[in-house]
Specification:
about 425 residues, mainly beta, Lipocalin, Immunoglobulin-like, Jelly Rolls, 3 domains, 8-stranded antiparallel sheet, 6-stranded antiparallel sheet, about 0% helix, about 45% strand, elongated
C-alpha cells in the first residue's frame, strides 16, 4: 500500500542508489550508488557519516559478515571493508581480470562456514582456508545415514560395493562409516561388508540395501532386470499391488481382477492429475526391441479412455473418443506423429505390437499394429514412421489415460529379429 508521510523515519534526498540493495549492521545503514560510491548513514537520524569510492559502475549489493563488508564492482574490483562510525578502512582489494578487460561482478557474495564465495562473469572464487580443522564426532541420534550409490539398475549375479556416509541432523557430512551393519529388504542376494551380490535367478526384483549405524538407518534402491525376453501376466501379484520394478506406477496403476483373471488396471480414482500416466519397466538405455500387450478399454458416460505401449520413447496409442491409432515420438509434437483411423470397441481385448529399430544411417524406424486378441496376428504393419530426429534408446512402458478404466495384460518385451 501507500507509505504515508508520518510513517517515514527519515529521508535522504539526492542519493542515486539504484541497483544495489542496502545492508544494516545494527547501528549504521550502508548503501552503494550506481557509480560505486558506498556511504554510511546513521540508522536513527539518516545523517551521512562518510563516503568511500570503490569504482565507477555498481550492480552488486554489499554483504555484512564478521564485522566486515564484502562487495565487488562491475569494474572487476573486489573489496573487503572495515566500516566504523567515522570512516571505512579498505582491508583488501583485488582486481579480477585486468583494468582493460575486467571480470564484471554483478552478484553479491555468499558467506558460509568461514568462507566467502564470489562469482564474476568469468568464474567462481572461494576465499578462506583450504581445509577445516579435523574433528572427531560420534554418530548423532537424529542424524542421517546415506547409502551410496543410492539408486541402481543391476543384472542377476552382478556385484556392487556400497558405502555408508554419516551426516548430522543439519545435513553436515561427518565421515564414511566402515562398521555399518548391512541388510537387504525384498532383494534376493547377499551383502557382506557393503558388497552386494545379486542372486542368479533370472527374475525381476526391486528392494533396498540398508545400512545401520547405531540407531539410525539409510537405504539405497535397487532394481534387477534379467536379459530379454520378458513376459508378465500379473497372475503372481496380489490384487491392489503395483509391479515393484515399475517407475511412475504407484497411485496410477494397480493389479485388479476381471472375469476371474488378474490384469493391470489404469485407475480412475483420486486426483485428475493422475488420470493420464506413463509407467516404465526397464533400463533407459534399451534399444532395438519390441513391446506387445493386450489392452481393453471400458466405456463410461460415453467416454472411452486412451492407452498404448511404449518402446524406446515411441508410443503406439489407441485413442478411444476419437477412434484413432497414433504413433508418437513425443505426444505434444503433433507434426512428428503418424495417425490413422481405428475403430476401437470398448470392453474388447485387442493386441498391440510396437517395434522400434535403430537404422544404420542414424535414423529410427518405429512401426506398429493392432488386432483383436482373439484373432491371429496380421502379417502387415498398420502404421510406420522413419524418424530423422530419432530417440535411439529408451525404456519400455505402457500409456494410459483413464477417462474410463483401462486394462492391460500379457505384456511381452523382446529383442527384434
Amino acid at each position: 500500500g501507500d507509505i504515508k508521510k508520518e510513517q517515514v523515519k527519515w529521508t535522504k534526498l539526492g542519493w542515486q542508489g539504484g541497483f544495489s540493495s542496502p545492508v544494516i549492521d545494527g547501528e549504521r545503514f550502508y548503501h552503494i550508488d550506481n557509480s560505486a560510491n558506498i556511504a554510511a548513514f546513521d540508522l536513527n537520524t539518516g545523517n551521512q557519516l562518510w563516503l568511500q569510492n570503490l569504482g565507477t559502475i555498481q550492480k552488486a549489493s554489499p554483504v555484512f559478515a564478521d564485522g566486515k563488508l564484502y562487495v565487488g564492482t562491475e569494474n572487476g574490483k573486489f573489496y573487503i571493508l572495515k566500516p566504523s562510525a567515522t570512516g571505512c578502512e579498505i582491508l583488501d582489494q583485488d582486481q579480477l581480470g585486468t583494468e582493460a578487460l575486467p571480470e564484471a561482478i554483478i552478484a553479491s557474495v555468499a558467506v558460509s562456514n568461514g568462507r566467502v564465495y564470489l562469482v564474476s562473469d568469468a568464474g567462481l572464487y572461494c576465499i578462506g582456508k583450504k581445509t577445516n580443522g579435523a574433528t572427531n564426532q560420534t554418530a548423532p541420534v537424529d542424524g542421517i545415514v546415506q547409502v551410496v550409490p543410492t539408486e541402481l539398475i543391476l543384472k542377476p549375479g552382478e556385484k556392487v560395493n556400497f558405502r555408508a556416509r554419516l551426516f548430522d541432523e543439519q545435513g553436515r557430512f561427518i565421515r564414511e562409516e566402515p562398521a555399518a551393519t548391512w541388510s537387504l529388504d525384498q532383494l534376493q542376494g547377499t551383502i557382506t561388508n557393503g558388497q552386494l551380490t545379486i542372486g542368479n535367478d533370472a527374475i525381476q526384483q526391486a528392494g533396498l540395501v540398508k545400512a545401520t549405524v547405531g540407531n539410525i538407518s539409510g537405504s539405497a534402491s535397487v532394481r534387477v532386470f534379467p536379459p530379454l525376453p520378458w513376459s508378465e501376466n500379473f497372475d503372481a501379484m496380489a490384487v491392489n499391488s503395483v509391479p515393484p520394478t515399475w517407475v511412475n506406477a504407484t497411485l496410477k496403476f494397480k493389479v485388479g481382477e476381471i472375469d476371474g483373471k488378474k490384469v493391470l488396471v489404469k485407475t480412475t480414482e483420486g486426483s485428475s492429475l493422475l488420470s493420464r500416466a506413463r509407467a516404465y519397466f526397464g533400463p533407459s538405455d534399451f534399444s532395438n526391441y519390441t513391446v506387445e500387450a493386450d489392452i481393453n478399454s471400458t466405456l463410461r458416460r460415453r467416454q472411452q479412455g486412451d492407452g498404448g505401449v511404449i518402446a524406446q520413447r515411441y508410443a503406439l496409442a489407441l485413442y478411444g473418443n476419437s477412434q484413432m491409432l497414433h504413433l508418437e515420438p513425443w505426444q505434444p509434437e503433433t507434426a512428428r506423429t503418424v495417425s490413422i483411423p481405428f475403430a476401437w470397441k470398448p470392453d474388447t481385448w485387442y493386441r498391440m505390437k510396437l517395434e522400434v529399430q535403430n537404422l544404420p544411417d542414424g535414423k529410427v524406424r518405429a512401426r506398429g499394429k493392432v488386432w483383436l486378441a482373439s484373432e491371429t496376428e496380421p502379417a502387415a504393419w498398420m502404421i510406420e514412421r522413419i524418424d530423422p530426429i530419432p530417440n535411439r534408446q529408451g525404456a519400455p512402458g505402457i500409456y494410459g489415460s483413464a477417462l474410463s478404466e483401462l486394462y492391460f495384460d500379457n505384456i511381452k518385451v523382446y529383442r527384434n529379429n
